[in-house]
Design goal:
Blueprint: H1 7-14, E1 21-22, H2 25-31, H3 41-54, E2 59-62, H4 71-82, E3 88-92, H5 105-122, E4 127-131, H6 142-154, E5 159-161, H7 168-178, E6 182-186, H8 194-200, E7 204-206, H9 210-229, H10 233-236, H11 241-247
Parallel strand pairs: 1-2, 2-3, 3-4, 4-5, 5-6, 6-7
Amino acid sequence: MPNPWDAGSARLLGQMGFQALATTSSGFAWSLGRADNHVSLEEALAHFRTISSAVGVPVNGDFEGGFAADADKVGANVAAASATGLAGLSIEDSTGDTANPLFAFELAVDRIRASRQAIDESGTGVVLTARCETYLVGRPDLDEAIRRLSAYAAAGADCLYAPGVRDLGEIKAIVDAVAPKAVNILVGSGFATVAELRELGVRRISVGGALARAAWTGFLEAAREIADQGTFNAVGRAVPFADINGSLT
């Protein structure tokens, strides 16, 4: 389930045979010239409408922390996101506060419960993914991740996600702990293959901002060559104009 950051990248991925796509909050923010987590609720909702209408496959929305702390407000925002054409969305439990990077356990569970209720009341059938951010906020703790993900599953999450976990044994432990619910794994480097993760029981894989970073890598390398050396070798190796233009015609 690769992650486009605009309508063009979504359409091209959709043509490659992927059965579902997911938005990336970081990739979208960078395309606006901002850091991750610096997009407004209204901008995120408009982005969801843009991506979901650009392709004919299901789209999962990276809804960050639900754009609120309070569970009821998260639920109201999830209801709004459910009306954008998304097939799924994710809610994370990070606060953005380096001193207290995760919402308190009970509040985090309440936020997932409120999201579940909002989706059920919407009648959209949107798939709810609950994210535990222990690994991403610098506090890798398998036991805490399993405790939270198990509670999120009990609160109504359809899919569980601990982005940042890379150890195959830990991934297997998470899969076993929340079974039969689905587990999503973030892959941003070559630490595992699709086949290896499938063997562990992982049912969904996303790459987060990795494709956006790959695109930025090519852009920055080419631009730096022009700026520093006055040469144009990198742009000469770029995908031909006709290949991209023809795919989007």
